[in-house]
Amino acid sequence: MKISIITVCYNSCQTISRTIESVLAQNNVHLEYIIFDGASKDNTVQIAESYRDSFAQKGFEYRINSEPDNGIYDAMNKGINAATGDVIGILNSDDYYASSDVLSSINSCFEQNNTDSVYGDLLYVKNDKSYRYWKSGKQKSFRSGWMPPHPAFFLKRLVYEKYGLFRLDCGINADYELMLRFLEVQKISTIWLNKVCTYMEAGGTSNNGLKARIAGMNNDKLAWEKNGLKPCRFTILLKKLRKLPQFVGARFYSLKISSTI
Question: Which end of the chain, C or N, has fewer beta carbons within 10 A?
């Protein structure tokens, strides 16, 4: 099984090396890595180009595209359309895989369970310390406020081909709409991998300030409307409240940054 990983970036020279190296560190996997850069004005592309020989030495396919886009989800859609793998994962340019066996573990889950999707756990990192531990747990209804973490969510390419890509009219929560559409509406099959797959720097676009949080909640509601669904009275609130125990759980997670790449 071939896995395609897509990273979209723009002016990411401070973080892109760590992201790329975490992909390069993966073992025992048939891998295609695609970087879609939004015409960065810094040296992001030059940094990415410097890894070509390293990827070739491991036998990994490595592609870099740099052109203007209409935002992060438009770039992700371009990446998905360009991907040739059986399975697609998306790794943001300030995120990185937690260990060198993440993708081989994902591959095993797909092969052993004949599933449409696999999701793992996510750890937010702040100042090189565990900040928020998103332990996904087994699948539940989105009406309960549950959702898997998108940076640790892997899908068969055929699912995108059948049910569509990211909607650009759902704002910063287009990932929520996509997972709601696939898992809640289309009822694709999924498996939880009880493993931290991805480290994510705290403070992303959807979590940056009060205005962003309000916009996020409005876009959550919009995601349900776009799918012709009505959430329960407290669904959106429960989605936020589910985050609270994750801050406590992070205190008991031993961060191993030095061993990831």
Answer: N
